[in-house]
Specification:
Layout lengths: L4 H11 L2 E5 L7 H12 L6 E5 L1 H11 L2 H10 L16 H6 L1 H14 L5 H10 L2 H6 L3 E9 L3 E6 H4 L7 H7 L9 E3 L2 E5 L8 H6 L4 E5 L16 E4 L13 H18 L9 E3 L4 H22 L17 H9 L6 H15 L7 E3 H12 L10 H14 L10 H19 L4
Parallel strand pairs: 1-2, 1-7, 2-3, 7-8, 9-10
Antiparallel strand pairs: 3-4, 3-6, 5-6
Amino acid sequence: MDTTINDRLKVEKEEKKSAVVFAGGGSKGAYQAGAMKALDELGERFEIAAGTSIGSINAAFYVQGDFDAAYEMWNTLTVDDIMTNGVNLDRSLESVISQREQLLPFVKTMVNKRGADVRPFHEKLKQFFNAEKFFSSPVDFALVTVRYPSFTPVEIHKKDMVRFGDDAWQWLAASGACFPVFPVMHIEDGDYVDGGYFDNIPVAPAFRLGATDAVVIDLKTEKNHAGYLHHPRIKYIKPSRDLGAFLNFGKEALRFSIKLGYDDTMKAYGKYYGREYTFLPGPHAEQALEWLSDKFMDILTEAEARFDFSGSVRFQRVNNLEGCTTLLASSLGVYRPTERELLLEALECFLRVCGYTNDVDYNLTELTSMLKSEVDRLYPMLEYDFATAFDTVCGFITAHGGKAPERKKQEDDRMLLIYTSLIRALQQMPLI
């Protein structure tokens, strides 16, 4: 009997393998613990896990199914669990000065041992690496390390680690040996250092293991793998805010990273809204977003067409000017954003300029209702001319502790048009 195309498609769908790929980045790996928690709650499952450096350790946690253990480790980890006489390096001079008593022993160890004393880190790896769970898991695994001193890349798969049994954790240590801060890792007849010297996000190894699609969890705000940015089979999750230094194991820094990883993953799957701000869905949030997006774009499009830019721009053709939506799209980093994305970015810009913190989560329904009640006090904003409206918006921003944009500057005029259009849309929004 001939196989139909529908039969074939069904078989191929069943044969597909998904991979989760973890980037390297030292203490910033706490972000991936939050992402793993979100993926688990979302019911996402992967047949392959790959990682480099700290990413290889988080990938091993995934293979073992130890999501709670990973979350616990990152919530309780300290610099003393990583190195003897260690110091947290968060890029600030004040931080270094506050740890001056630990700094000299740390430097002495670095010199004497040609790298930090990372025996505590290795003990931690032994504690959390479970050979029985790892090798019996149906999830396949790959990591990248680099042979020293030739800096030749080495790709290690789960099958290559089997013969090492309980000592297979050494390959995780090799992938994470961020030389010269950490010493080289000696395994059998070879020396190895951090895989980030070759490939900090091992997407290709995951595909070589048979993956047909992948979720990548990066640790930098700029995407590491430009070649995969537009790949239709890759979901790319990256920090919406800077995670700081790669050797800062302070509790606040780790907890910030964990929460951000959770929130950013929820946003990537459409469960939360926002970019640098986090908007939680509330009752009727979808309806409010749909209505506000449409009304905001109606008002902005009309306002931009009517606004006279000749006062702020001289000796420049109008068709060379950047539009309001172009400014928002550039801020988003999206070539052709949706109306909803433009509205949310305008809302973030407005909250930022008014001084609202992005360190807390906002219920979207409650936030828009609160803002509506605030801007309704500006009535009759809808009837104002542009000059009066701009002055009113600037007064509103200043009253909330923010710094109002300067008038008669090309970009600032466009931002004021955006804020004015947002306020006018909020004023017309029906009660939720």
